[in-house]
Design a protein that fits this description.
Elements lengths: L9 E6 L5 H13 L3 E6 L1 H11 L6 H8 L7 E4 L18 E6 L1 H8 L6 H11 L4 E5 L6 H12 L3 E2 L13 H16 L14
Parallel strand pairs: 1-2, 1-4, 2-3, 4-5, 5-6
Length: 204
């Protein structure tokens, strides 16, 4: 078997309707490019953000996803929100971590209360109950007390709260550099090697 075709990790990525869908798209693209398998779940609001923020044609969702993730798409598995038969809905399915990027305050609240109203929330609940790696990338400003309390609640349970706050010490030259900084921080917390940004103390 060609060593380059071996899966180097399996991850679940959720994209919600919070502003910043670019972060989630870039993360999936990067994971696929380094031979990882990705389970992708998108909320209905995420599709609206695709259209409003990125000017993408969402009339044919399958075609759009094929365009966004055409390279290495054989390692991408897309799940509908109501597919509770998906492997990621069960704690018996072993994988390496889950990221919700960006995460809306509504999804954050549902996870904090273990509502499991859809597959994305159920998959996150599985990570909590099995004490596995869960990273949440909230994108909201300003934050009210309920938002902060929900983040603290999840943080105390072992969830990594990684706000979409790009750094500027790497001297970004365009929006892609800002996106890559946040995605790179996510990959750092997943333990995945990358070179998406120049680290503090490194030469560019």
């Amino acid at each position: 078997m060609d060593q380059s075709l071996k899966v180097k990790g399996t991850y679940t990525v959720g994209i919600t309707g919070a502003s910043g869908a670019q972060y989630g798209i870039r993360l999936v693209q990067k994971l696929l490019s380094i031979s990882c398998k990705v389970h992708l779940v998108l909320t209905e609001a995420a599709w609206q953000v695709f259209q409003l923020e990125l000017n993408l044609d969402t009339s044919n969702r399958e075609k759009l996803l094929n365009q966004l993730f055409s390279e290495n798409s054989e390692r991408l598995q897309i799940h509908s929100l109501n597919d509770y038969s998906a492997a990621i809905a069960s704690g018996s399915y072993q994988h390496d971590g889950m990221v919700i990027i960006p995460c809306s305050m509504g999804t954050l609240s549902s996870i904090a209360s273990a509502s499991s109203n859809n597959l994305l929330e159920r998959a996150a609940d599985v990570m909590l109950k099995e004490k596995r790696k869960l990273i949440i990338v909230p994108r909201e400003t300003p934050l009210n007390e309920i938002h902060l309390e929900n983040m603290l609640k999840l943080s105390k349970m072992g969830v990594t709260i990684l706000p979409a706050m790009p750094g500027f010490y790497q001297q970004p030259t365009d929006i892609n550099d800002l996106i890559d900084f946040v995605v790179g921080k996510v990959l750092d917390n997943l333990g995945v090697d990358h070179s998406l940004f120049t680290r503090w103390g490194e030469k560019s």
